[in-house]
Amino acid sequence: MTSLLDGCTPWPEEFVDHYWAAGHWRGNTLDNLLRGWALDHGPRTALVHGGTRVSYAALNRRADRMAAGFRLRGLRRGQRVVVQLPNVPEFVVTVFALMRAGVVPVFCPTTHREAEVSDLVQLTQATGYVGPSTYAGVDHTAMVAEIAARGPFLRRVFTYEPPGTASPFGGGLTTDPAGCHYSPLDSIDAPPEPALAQGADQVALLVPAGSRLVPRTHDDYAYQARAAAESVSLTEDDVYLAALPAESAFAFGCPGILGTLIAGGTVVLADSPDPAACLPVIARERVTVTSVTPAIAESWLAAHSGAADLSSLRLVQIDGDPLPRQTAERVAAALECRLQQVFALPEGVLTLTRPDTTAPASHGHPLSPDDQLRIVDAVGEDVPDGATGHLLARGPYTPRGHYRAPDSLAFTPDGYLRTGALARRAPDGGLLVTGQAVEAPDGGD
């Protein structure tokens, strides 16, 4: 069995051996990959947010120093830390720094409030939290103070402030009556320490999937992002716009932020997916690739007057229901790019259409040649081609269980994820997701 975080289900050894032999898994941790990117692309721009530009060398250096700072503030190897940050460079730096410190980041949407964040803390026994002091009118510091007061896990809070904004804690460490320590995130800095020896089969991060958490290993997530980057021919000349929340499965690794960094490109972080925020940024930064939902694509189409020069765009990925053909053709023409339809789940199931398709009619084909998809009826029997059924999936980037849910009915006994989606084979041979199932199939041997 592989060496995973407690509470996770490993891949069977025969699958591990096959994924290694096929070259999918390469034994390098995500934080160590960053070291290589810094050597290969040091002065090139890795991250852009407003007027802030961060080079690959600076990203690696900051991750190193923040990792040492986290350890200095008491975080220890194997612990979990909830990360609830907006689309700012600090999100990327923090994720790599935590991994480099041997700590597992737990991705948390900025829209989550006290109940959801508390559930994450309790489920993961998170000892730390990284988030804004306030964001979108919500006092996150007060929220986590309430969670910490109920104990027993949360004891270290690191607060992010936008540049030029003073921290309510000044520049140092504050401790509340419950014994929880508060520090400004920008104060987490210390001389780098020797790199920790970590296995790529260990959990790199925990990502939310509804009320569950998905444990993603360094090996499986690196493979997903790398293969997705290759599927859309990302290069160091590409500029990716993270219009969706950075912690979302679609924006972070399909190929998203991580895939762009793997290719040596530039990631532009948008504060909002609204056209008023994104269209000028696309023009200014010469964005080439982005990923959005159908609703966002249509809002961009409605708002685009031709004033912004979008000629740099070559590909827009769409996650969700396929756009009607007429709408897809209008979007592609107005934004002067190709569309790629995607079906992506936090568990790693990922299908994509060819990026040279003008108006995709399906959700495309699986990312990996070793993805195994089944469409089954209510008793787990395969349905005929063209018939609608329940979608099951397993593969080299689809974990075999949710975090601390070893007996979950979300997986069949033979390791297929019950995705909860209804799907059928489209005439082009691709997968067409048609809706959500009310009940899961029995399925599995």
Largest sheet: 9 strands, mixed
Which regions have little confidence, pLDDT < 50, spanning 5+ residues?
none
Distance between the termini: 21 Å
**Which overall shape is indicated by the principal axes computed on the Cα atoms?**
globular
Strand percentage: 15-25%
Map the helices and strands.
Blueprint: H1 13-21, H2 30-41, E1 45-49, E2 52-55, H3 56-72, E3 80-83, H4 89-100, E4 104-107, H5 114-124, E5 128-132, E6 134-135, E7 138-139, H6 140-150, E8 156-160, E9 174-175, E10 181-184, E11 203-209, E12 212-217, H7 218-231, E13 239-242, H8 249-253, H9 256-263, E14 266-269, H10 275-285, E15 289-292, H11 294-303, E16 315-319, H12 325-335, E17 338-344, E18 350-352, E19 365-366, E20 372-376, E21 389-394, E22 417-425, E23 431-436
Parallel strand pairs: 1-14, 3-4, 3-5, 5-8, 8-10, 13-14, 13-15, 15-16, 16-17
Antiparallel strand pairs: 1-2, 6-7, 9-10, 11-12, 17-18, 18-19, 20-21, 21-22, 22-23
Helix pairs in contact: 2-3, 2-4, 3-4, 5-6, 7-9, 11-12
